Amino acid sequence: MSVREEAPLSAEQVDEVIERFPGRTGDVLRILETLQEMHPLKYLPEATLKYVAERKGLALSNVFSVVTFYSFFNLNPQGRHTIMVCRGTACHTRGSKLLLDGLMSESGGSANGDDASSSFTTPDHELTVRTVACFGQCALAPVVSVDEDIHGHMSDLKLKRMVRGIVKREAKDDNS
Amino acid sequence: MIIRDLDTLNDIRQTRLNRLLRSRPRIGVGMGTCGVGNGAQTVYDALAEALVEKGLDADLEPVGCFGFCAVEPLVNVYLPGRPLVILAEVTPEDVPHIVDEIADGRVPTTKALCRIEEWDHLTGEVRFGRGLSEIPLWNEIPFFQGQQKIVLRNCGLINPERLDDYIAVGGYFPLYQALHKPGGDQIIEEINKANLRGRGGAGYPTGVKWNLMRKAKADTKYMICNADEGDPGAYMNRNEIESDPHMLLEGMLIGAYATESNKGIVYLRAEYPLAVQRLEKAVQDAREAGLLGERILGTSFSFDVELVEGAGAFVCGEETSMIASLEGRAGRPRPRPPFPAQSGLWGYPTNINNVETWCNVPVIVSRGGAWFAGVGTPNSTGTKVFSLVGKVKNTGLVEMPLGAPLKNIVYGIGGGSPAAKRIKAVQTGGPSGGCIPAKHFDTSVDYESLGALGAIMGSGGMVVMDEDNCMVDVARYFLEFTHSESCGKCIPCRVGLDEAVRILRKICDGEADMADVDKLEELAPMIRDASLCGLGQTAPNPVLTTLRYFREEYEEHIRARRCYAGVCEKLYLSPCENSCPLNMRIPAFLELLKEDRLEDAAEMVWLDNPLPASTGRICQHPCESQCRRGDEDAPVNMREVHRYIADTVFDGPLMERVRARLLEDRFEATGKRVAVIGAGPSGLSAAFYLAMLGHEVIVYEERDEPGGMLRYCLPEYRLPKDVLRAEIDVLESLGIRFEYGQTLGAGLSLDSLEQDCDTVFLATGTWNETRAGCTGEDAPDVWHAITFLEQVALGAPPSVGERVVVVGGGNAAVDSARTAVRLGAKSVTIVYRRERSDMPAIAEEVYDAEAEGVEVRFFLSPQRVVTDNDGHVKGIELRKTVPGEFDASGRRTPVSTDEILKLPCDLVIMAVGEKPDPDPLRRAGIHVRDNYTAKVDWMTYKTNRPRVHAGGDLVTGASNVSATMATGKAAARAIDRILMGEDRLDRVLKVFTYENRVPLEPEGGDRQVARHRAPDDRKNNFEEVMLGYGAEAAILESRRCLRCDVKEQCAVKGGTS
Which residue of A has its CA nearest to B37? Predict the structure, then answer.
């Protein structure tokens, strides 16, 4: 298993994105969203933030204010796989806290209250566990997503099995 | 094709309708996010493949969601001339049959949920066809009863990705009408007439808002749709956009025309990728058709819409925050004025409405404001879409006229609890809303009524909560949410919520005192009154409402350190332990047994529950409904395992060793003396713990033998007398003294006991019958269940004759019926005035009774016992009832009809309830409640007489064995604390060490079935029916435990804690 590169995006890449949004509504947000999606580790390295601030003529503090305000943005590298546990009300009443705690202990992290930004990435960057305020899939509660696939009516055991499945599959892929 | 005139619009409509209704079969698969999440894509793919394979000429298309999310995937099938049929819970395995049926010209009806013969899209009507009356009409099935689809008029019926589908059902005609007939003023006039109020939460009149906007003059004016559906637990906006995106665009277009705005923005959550995709497609299609852009529909009106995805911040639902976010900044609100209509996005006049508000607009234009105002109540007009989720059977999106009673939504449409649990509350309005307790479910759902209860309509989230939800935890959950979503700009919200969350966490962790609640009560109004925006102003609502309606739960967490719902993890060992009234350390005794440490297991079981063999037979086992193994296959049968442990000890030489251990565990004598009045389960349990704590205990009993109802009312076939006797022998050997023939008020006086003893514990139970209130009840052959069972237990059973009728639905009714079978009755009938699922009796007992030939009949209420001239019973007249309104417990109140049923019989047994005898209590100066139970303080079980405590059914009313024993245990703790000045009970309970390992995969296999006698072997005698586990089964069953008590462990690394 190799830990993937934590490199900033190249100036050309960032320039290209900035040009895509010439002065449109909410352009800084969109630029940052696009850049984060482009990064293989789905995050915004500091160097990228500095470069965007410079190019857009904004103070770095303004850019930083935006990325720390919205839960979408990550300032740390994300795992190859992401499991999101929905912490919406319907999921909460059907035991999603238990799922989150179980998942955290399974992957070696620790749940940090119910902070919407609470997330944990394994040191090898294979797996990120995070929460989402609500998927709007309340009828299937409790709900988790694994790499964007929604799984409803989740149970602690089922979820742990899925995580083990992912870990095993990866190990196999890396060996082959 | 650009649409410039009405003819083109009509052409598109007619062409599409011809295709949809006349030409060929059409299959629509519900492909909203929830449908896809339930497997709709695989169903769609399977259908596509099967149609090709079969060479069938049919249209297969995705449609939106019809609202009944619980039974997705939904597939609708239409054959020309026939009704549209909606199939539910369709799997790929169903596909071949569906396609075969269609190929043969038949409508597939397996899995049919409902049919639709005609549909009023409000902008146009569609007639499918008639027939197939064996399938219910859509609004005949409970989930849709009372629903009225205005906003969801097209959802689940049209293909959201086709503009011509929307036009086919009359879409964009209202826009044409608006652009060509009335001016902007007239549209606003209609909106005012409709009295449309904002559906985002606050309920502000839309027409008033639009008027301000219309008056604002500028060359750029923004119309914004707020689709940042941030309320966790609400998803109607997602579905509205996914299922019918053009209705939103049309609403915005009409609004823009009315207010002379030229730019539109939809601010949509990024968490809704499918909604984004469908709306993008709709915008593009509308542009290509000339419905967005320049010179719309051939007029001079121009308007375009842009999509902006939110980046995940709840506060951006607040309009000034949303504007900040759209300008590329952190979404912090600002004070108003200036209002957005004066100075909004980039300083231009701006109007923001919620998705659902926009969706109502085309209908109001089409049908007129007066029509719309006729729906709902005068102040809350129209409908509202609710997302009905949480602990309710039928989850989904429900559109109701405003003003419908809450109970119709929760119990009627929602179908009540999925797990036969007591529903406690509904949370409306999300983090800004409140919790409405079940006792207020009569409330009409409108803006004002919900507000009066301290809740809000909000965006329509309705989360149902049951007895397994902790209301303190709910308050903590919402405050943690609003706290983490607080933008931090104003101090009341930022600091106030932080402090409130800290207090709530303390309460949930059992580390708070009552002063913390006072502080919370002081803090909440401050945050509400002083915060800058709606987030802070409404954030205290969940705390305020839970404090108002569920204050006792706060007190339980603080004073008793208990979370009865089993949510606050620091306050319990495991869900089973927490649900056990006696708090038996279930995972621990299972583990001890597994480790082959029977003696340790037995000692622990006895310390936790002094009647383990009796309760092992007759307990209502609430533990099973909490067991997490139940999510996997079936709950662990914990009751049978502790019965096995107790029985095994009694059967062998172990008893002496366990008895010796208990004697060793007993504390040194304290010199204090306690009198217990009543040798029923509650008195016995109190006596045991008081004796173990070193006190001298004397039990006074009116009857000749101990055991109370266990001895005199529980039939021998459920609880053999010698089992009970052996357990009481153990108690006697711990030094407890019993005195029989001692009746309170007749020989036994509280005054003298108070002088002789340090404390008196009263547990005289509920031995007075409740009368059914029917004529002839006093005839000699009419027995009350308690008296009847007691006669049998005394060995003097009455003659039952051939035919027996038992009135009632509880355990006493079932016990009486099964006893009557054993006494030789040829036919035994139980009659109950409600339905089967409402019976309070243990379900297994009812099942066993029926296996023995007992007939159970429902919806019958006793009217008159018929007797002959000698007074002998000849029969009973029963009045048929029908289910009426939902009562506070969520059951339907039986309503009498005129229809009378006569059942001939020789004996009638009334089993309609028991209550305490209040007279001896009153004479002894004990305060009694209206229901004749003794009045005590719930924490100490103290009565008004300073040294007299009371417990058991005497204070709770008729309950069950473990609940009544639990009050004895709790009272013993309190009495000891008062006598000794410290809480010592936990020390008696002794700590055992054992392995703490969580199995990675469930072990132990399937749930073990206990041995039992077959009906033919048991119905002619009183031999015990349930024979319990053998050693092998008990150990296998104990291995099935998932060890929820082990909280700290890293399972991947396989470590033990």
Answer: A150
Last residue of a domain, one of A48, A69, A90: A69
Q: Torsion over CA of B188, B191, B193 and B198, rounded to 10 degrees?
A: -130
Q: Residue B156 falls within a domain, yes or no? A: no
Query: Which among B949, B981, B978, B969 is positioned nearest to B754, based on CA atoms?
Result: B949
Interface test with chain B among A55, A73, A93, by most B beta carbons within 10 Å = A93
Q: Which amino acid does the sequence have at B974?
A: A
User: Which residues, at least 6 apart from B348, have a Cβ–Cβ distance to it below 8 Å?
Assistant: B218, B220, B221, B222
Q: Round to whole Å and give the CA distance between B1006 and B1037.
A: 8
Q: Do B477 and A66 touch (CB under 8 A)?
A: no
ipTM over 0.95: no
Does one domain contain both A90 and A157?
Answer: yes
Examine residue B162 and state whether it is found in any structural domain, yes or no.
Answer: no
Distance CA B844, CA B841 (A): 9
Supply the CATH number for residue A87's domain: 3.40.30.10
Contact A93 B1052 (CB under 8 A): no
Q: Note whether B430 contacts A89, CB cutoff 8 Å.
A: yes
Any B CB within 8 A of A147 CB = no
What residue in A sits closest to B269 (Cα-Cα)? Answer: A135
Integer Rg of chain A from CA: 18
Looking at the structure, tell me whether residues A134 and A88 fall in a common domain.
yes
- Of A39, A69, A99, the position where a domain reaches its end is A69
Alpha-helical (H) ranges within B911-984 are 918-923, 953-956, 961-980
pTM here is 0.91
Bridging pattern class, strands B873-886 and B860-867 = antiparallel
Total count of domains within chain B: 7
Question: CA-to-CA distance for B367 and A25, rounded, in angstroms?
Answer: 36
* pLDDT value of position A173: 59
d(CA B165, CA B171): 8
Considering CB atoms only, which of A90, A108, A140 is closest to B463?
A90
Q: Which CATH number does the domain housing residue B418 bear?
A: 3.10.20.600
Are the beta carbons of B524 and B544 closer than 8 angstroms? yes
Q: Which chain A residue is nearest to residue B470, measuring alpha carbons? A: A93
pLDDT of residue A5: 55
User: Which ranges constitute the DSSP H helices of B866-924?
Assistant: 918-923
pLDDT value of position A175? 53
Residue among A29, A93, A148 whose CB faces B463 most closely: A93
Query: B655-711: per-residue pLDDT in tens?
Result: 999 999 999 999 999 999 999 999 999 999 999 999 999 999 999 999 999 999 999
* Closest residue in B to A67 (Cα–Cα): B330
- A41, A96: one domain: no
User: A29–B306: do the CB atoms touch at under 8 Å?
Assistant: no
Contact A29 B325 (CB under 8 A): yes
Domain co-membership, B259 together with B319: yes
> Which pLDDT belongs to residue A25?
58
Domain boundary pick from B340, B358, B373: B373
Query: What is the span of the domain harbouring residue B829?
Result: 769-913
Q: How far is A54 from chain B (nearest CA, A)?
A: 16
pLDDT number for residue A2? 42
What pLDDT, on the 0 to 100 scale, is given for residue A174? Answer: 56
Counted domains in chain A: 2
Kindly determine whether residue B631 and residue A71, on different chains, have CB atoms separated by under 8 Å: no
Nearest residue on chain B to A73, alpha-carbon basis: B311
Q: Which residues in chain B touch residue A164, judged by CB atoms under 8 angstroms apart?
A: 1052
| pLDDT tens-place string over residues B377-392 | 999 999 999 999 999 9
Instruction: Verify that B760 and B786 share a domain, yes or no.
Output: no
Shared domain check, B926 and B887? no
Question: Which domain, by its residues, includes A134?
Answer: 81-175
Is the CB of A156 less than 8 angstroms away from the CB of B230?
A: no
Same-domain status, B179 and B314 = yes
Task: Quickly state the pLDDT bin for A8 (edges 50, 70, 90).
Answer: confident
Instruction: Kindly state whether residue B150 falls inside one of the protein's structural domains.
Output: no
Among B235, B480, B632, the residue with its CB nearest the CB of A138 is B235
